[in-house]
Design brief:
The structure is a single chain. This protein is 52% helix and 5% strand. By secondary structure, the protein is mostly helical. A two-stranded antiparallel ribbon has the order 1-2. The chain starts with a helix and ends with a helix.
């Protein structure tokens, strides 16, 4: 068997194995996986839809680049998440009893760490803003920068409303909270949110 023939046979076996694990599904429509590279001409999502990271099921590609098959890593959703989607995400977080505020490491260790009492007080003060930020991270199509900016504005507003006498120090602390949102948390949130809102 020549090297070229062997390579073609190996590619065919690999494609068959992938296809067996991930059956080919429709692509490009609302709630469907984004089309894979070379699978169709034009955008990976239908007109009016945007590609959002995260595809948990029904992700199998067919007829992609070089005729091989694989899986899509994103889904197609309407440009703006529906209110039903946002309500479902909020309910999901609330039901899970998730602690919304996760202070950045510098506030938990080292010479500038907060006392347990101060930590509880600020988590309570920023709690509603943290929950909204978590919902934003989950909402398909929202950008991390927009979520973080909204988060910071909401916290600073609380500082001036509830801690006027120490608003400047409170705002500095809010900036540290806002800087603590990781890219990994955002990307995981986008995948989970896309899966939850696929049928809404």
């Amino acid at each position: 068997m020549s090297g070229t023939t062997f390579a073609i046979a190996a590619a065919a076996l690999l494609a068959g194995a992938i296809a067996a694990r991930h059956p080919v599904t429709p692509c490009g429509g609302q709630g469907q996986r984004a089309c894979c590279v070379g699978e169709r001409k034009g955008p990976v999502c239908d007109r009016g839809l945007r590609e959002v990271p995260g595809c948990s099921e029904g992700c199998g590609c067919g007829g992609g680049l070089l005729g091989t098959e694989g899986t899509s890593s994103s889904v197609c959703l309407a440009a703006g998440a529906s209110q039903a989607c946002k309500d479902a995400l909020l309910a999901m977080l609330t039901k899970a009893g998730q602690s919304a505020c996760q202070p950045p490491k510098p506030l938990l260790e080292g010479e500038h760490k907060l006392t347990p009492e101060s930590l509880r007080a600020h988590n309570e003060l920023f709690g509603a803003a943290c929950l909204r930020r978590d919902v934003c991270y989950l909402t398909p199509g929202e950008t991390k920068s927009a979520c973080d900016a909204q988060f910071l504005r909401a916290m600073v507003t609380e500082c001036y409303a509830q801690r006027a006498a120490e608003a400047r120090a409170c705002s500095d602390l809010a900036a540290q909270y806002a800087a603590g949102g990781s890219l990994d948390a955002y990307e995981k949130g986008q995948r989970a949110g896309a899966a939850r809102c696929a049928d809404l």
